[in-house]
Every structure is written in structure tokens, then in C-alpha cells.
């Protein structure tokens, strides 16, 4: 949504908008890494069972929780850099919808991960 609107709005001048391109690149990177982590977790769960990969699920969930916020921030920065008025408001609403996430207690998940590492006194994954 953000990349398409930026291309339509800025056309040939987009090459001079390095900040917007950086925001879009950061968004794409976060989505790619999030998808890769999730697919890897699904593959592990299929092989080992969900109970065996609970801590890996915690790690992926923590990452996804942070990635949604990063994508939202980069999207807002990009939208605010090229859109105004009603277009801006509508795009920000769309971004909010696409980056909505369920509440997640990352503190408890991070503590479970840390407890495993502390107990084994080494990298356990």
C-alpha cells in the first residue's frame, strides 16, 4: 500500500526521496524476516510437535510483536512524507488496520527464553 502510493504520487521524483525509499525498504525487510521466522517455526512444529518448540514460538512471537510496531512506524513516516489531507488520513487508517496486533505479554515470553538460557548456561537453540 505504502510503496504503491509513493510510486503513484512521486513518479520519477521517487529516486530523490531516499528517506521514503528507506522506510519502504525497512518495511519490506521486517515482513520478509517475520515470514521466514514464522515459516521456520511452523516447519519445526510439524516435525517436533508444538509443545517441543514452545520457546521458539515465544521468540517468534516476540519478534513479530516488535516487527509490527517497526512496520507501522516506517509506514507512518513514509505516508506523512508524501501524503496530505484526506489521502493521508485514509492511508494512515489503512496502515493501522494492516499493522493491528493482538496484545502480547513479551516480558513473560522473554523471561521464559532467558530462564532456559540461564539454566543451560549456553545458547540453547
Task: Please provide a written account of the structure.
The chain is mostly helical. It has one domain (2-120): Up-down Bundle (Butyryl-CoA Dehydrogenase, subunit A, domain 3), CATH 1.20.140.10. 78% of the residues lie in helices and 0% in strands. The chain has helices spanning 2-10, 18-48, 54-82, 85-98, 106-120. It is elongated, with a radius of gyration of 18 Å. It starts with a helix and ends in a 5-residue tail after the last helix. The mean pLDDT is 96.
Q: At the first level of CATH, what is the class?
A: Mainly Alpha
Largest sheet: none
Strand composition percent: under 5%
CATH architecture: Up-down Bundle
Structural class label: mainly alpha
Instruction: Give the SSE order as H and E letters.
Output: HHHHH
Provide keyphrases for this structure.
single chain, 125 residues, mainly alpha, Butyryl-CoA Dehydrogenase, subunit A, domain 3, 5 helices, 78% helix, elongated
How are the elements arranged and paired?
Blueprint: H1 2-10, H2 18-48, H3 54-82, H4 85-98, H5 106-120
Short summary:
The chain has 125 residues and is mainly alpha-helical.
